[in-house]
Recover the amino acids of this structure.
């Protein structure tokens, strides 16, 4: 996020990749279909499996204009969220026109409920940085908003596989906040460690009519390398 060829005042362009653990919090889910299915689940638990294929990862670029303390980031994050079947969840509404019990496992309704190819987030962000130790250790923080492009995978229990929804959709807005530390150990290469919270309001369309809606929020502890195409030494005032 800062760095070293002595070109004081020159802009720095940074490219980075990252990975790490990610935890998606339980969320309410709304599910509707023609034929009398209108269900609300109060707290569906999710698992992210960030180290299983496809893993959790991200790619980003940051432009620091004029080597200043504020930059512009373009961030892509691939996060998985797969419903946990084993835990009964509270629910209300109707399934195929009939009232449902107040609590049961998700398998009573779904054969598939997940975003295992990612509820992918594309967000422009504003980031700010401050050197802490000479030119090698930098603190930074940022926030931004963008869109979610999840792979919506929804199937009904007992229904043929061909009726299952499995497609990428532009499904809602996304926001995120982040903060971290960067260690600049050479003029053009650094390592960073970061905490990020990403949230997205997902409203996906279901094959044959209907929708699945939820608000997903994911805690992430990420790390990775960054490459600085230009390497000005110090942050300009």
């Amino acid at each position: 996020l800062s760095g070293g060829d002595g070109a004081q005042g020159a802009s720095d362009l940074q490219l980075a990749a990252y990975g790490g653990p990610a935890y998606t919090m339980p969320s309410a889910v709304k599910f509707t279909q023609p034929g009398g299915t209108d269900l609300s689940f109060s707290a569906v638990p999710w698992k992210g499996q960030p180290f299983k294929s496809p893993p959790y990862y991200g790619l980003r670029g940051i432009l620091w204009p004029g080597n200043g303390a504020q930059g512009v980031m373009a961030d892509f994050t691939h996060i998985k969220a797969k419903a946990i079947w084993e835990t009964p969840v509270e629910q209300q509404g109707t399934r195929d026109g009939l009232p449902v019990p107040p609590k049961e496992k998700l398998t009573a309704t779904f054969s598939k409920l997940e975003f295992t190819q990612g509820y992918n987030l594309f967000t422009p962000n504003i980031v700010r940085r401050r050197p802490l130790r000479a030119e090698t250790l930098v603190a930074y923080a940022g926030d931004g908003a963008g869109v979610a492009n999840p792979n919506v995978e929804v199937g009904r229990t007992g229904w043929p596989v061909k009726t299952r929804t499995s497609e990428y959709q532009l499904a809602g807005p996304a926001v995120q906040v982040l903060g971290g530390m960067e260690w600049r150990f050479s003029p053009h290469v650094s390592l960073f460690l970061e905490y990020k919270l990403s949230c997205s309001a997902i409203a996906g369309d279901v094959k044959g009519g209907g929708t699945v809606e939820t608000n997903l929020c994911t805690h992430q502890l990420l790390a990775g390398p960054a490459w600085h195409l230009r390497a000005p030494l110090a942050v300009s005032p």
Summary: The CA atoms of residues 152 and 166 lie 5 Å apart. Confidence is low (pLDDT under 50) at residues 1-7.
